[in-house]
Amino acid sequence: MFWRRKKRAPVQISREDLLKLVPLKNPVLKWEKNSGEVSVFVPMGEFKHTTRLARRVGSQPPRRIVLDRLSTDVWELCDGINTIDDIVLRFCATHRVQRHQAEPAIIALLGRLTGKGLVAMTPRQVPPGKQSSRTPGEELSE
């Protein structure tokens, strides 16, 4: 008889807490930027479907994921320093879009990148004795 895994309940997180998360690129992955687009090379797992030739030779070519120009801008800001809120604000300033248009799209993109293992979300590390003076939605000073 087949057993089904029970699906985990999705984690509920408030919008304010979500905007405080810091996306960080997976340090194991290799990536390159060509003509404004980023190509991310994901090593194939041991049990992934591969070609017959790759199985015979013993090497598995990495899977290549190409990000478009707008996704590339978000990818480059995932440096472990910028919060999601910072990324949204910089994206809005760069591409001249309104926040209510960009925020859901960027959150969805980061969710897809997280699901593929390209990006991880970490809480912002505030040094002891210092409090963040900026709140989500406040403009960045550059």
Descriptive tags:
5 helices, three-stranded antiparallel β-sheet, two-stranded antiparallel sheet, Outer Surface Protein A, domain 3, 5 strands, 35% helix, alpha+beta, globular, 142 residues
How does the SSE layout of this entry go?
Elements: H1 15-19, E1 21-25, E2 30-34, E3 37-42, H2 52-57, E4 63-67, H3 69-77, H4 84-95, H5 99-115, E5 119-123
Molecular structure report:
The protein has 142 residues and is an alpha+beta fold. The chain has a single domain (15-119), classed as Outer Surface Protein A, domain 3 (Alpha-Beta Complex). The chain has helices spanning 15-19, 52-57, 69-77, 84-95, 99-115, and strands at residues 21-25, 30-34, 37-42, 63-67, 119-123. The strands form 2 sheets. A 3-stranded antiparallel beta sheet has the order 2-3-4. Strands 1-5 form a two-stranded antiparallel ribbon. Helix 4 crosses helix 5. The relative contact order is 0.20. The model has no long low-confidence stretch (mean pLDDT 82).
Remind me, CATH topology? Outer Surface Protein A, domain 3
Series of H and E elements: HEEEHEHHHE
Shape: globular
Largest sheet descriptor? 3 strands, antiparallel
Distance between the first and last residues' Cα = 61 Å
Number of strands: 5
Q: How would you classify the quaternary structure? A: single chain
| Rg of Cα set | 18 Å
CATH architectural designation: Alpha-Beta Complex
Strand content: 15-25%
The strands making up the biggest β-sheet line up spatially as: 2-3-4
Mean pLDDT equals 82
Quick one: CATH class? Alpha Beta
> Percent range for helical residues?
25-40%
Low-pLDDT stretches: none
Number of domains: 1
Category from helices, strands and their pairing? alpha+beta
Output the number of helix runs: 5
